Amino acid sequence: MSKNATYKGYSKQAEKIAKNTHFTCEEVDALLALHDSTGNSPRMDGNRFRDIMHGIFGMTDESLMECMYQVFDMDQDGAVGPEEFVVGMSVFLRGTLEEKIDYCFSVYDHNGDGFVSRDEMFHLLKTAVVNLPPGEELDEVVKDMVEMVCRKLDIDHDGRVNFTDYATAVAAEPLLLEVFGPVLPDNQEREAFLNTFMEKYGIRSQM
């Protein structure tokens, strides 16, 4: 038995981290193994993080993944450590609505000023336009989308969306949670992770 493992088979590190997540100790150990398997360094850089989000969860928006990486990097030291990764994945995979609201808003509020401005909305929504209607200009379509989103989210009508605006709107209409772009796995991606990764490490996940 490893000197870092308990008699139950999981690591002491996992036992400590599990207390602050929605994971069992065994699941934490599996996620720590995933973190460690992505490189020789305990510090996960942005490229390794994007590889996981793209390869496992099918995410493709580089800008959003960069914002997600910054949220996972809780101490803002330029890398996602093992505990940061597991705690972030706890919200990403099993978070309560309140936890997901906080996470999503933090991703969308890229500059961390507490607001999603119209300029930020424009940038976020522009990447969401896949099929442009014939004869329509992209910028005009996105501006219309910004106006529509503001009507839904800008509760205090100050021209921007703060956390209270966003949380209030999402609590009333949960489908607005990812209104600015996908930053959480859908059910199919989540199940795929359950059926492949967790089984790889012999874990019966509760996800």
Brief overview:
With 207 residues, this protein is an all-alpha fold. 56% of the residues lie in helices and 2% in strands. The protein has a single domain, classed as EF-hand (Recoverin, domain 1, Orthogonal Bundle), CATH 1.10.238.
Describe what you observe in this structure.
It is a single chain. With 207 residues, this protein is an all-alpha fold. The protein has one domain (12-200): Recoverin, domain 1 (Orthogonal Bundle), CATH 1.10.238. It is built from 10 helices and 2 strands. Strands 1-2 form a two-stranded antiparallel ribbon. Helix 1 (12-18) crosses helix 2 (25-37), helix 2 (25-37) packs across helix 5 and helix 7 packs across helix 8. It is elongated, with a radius of gyration of 19 Å.
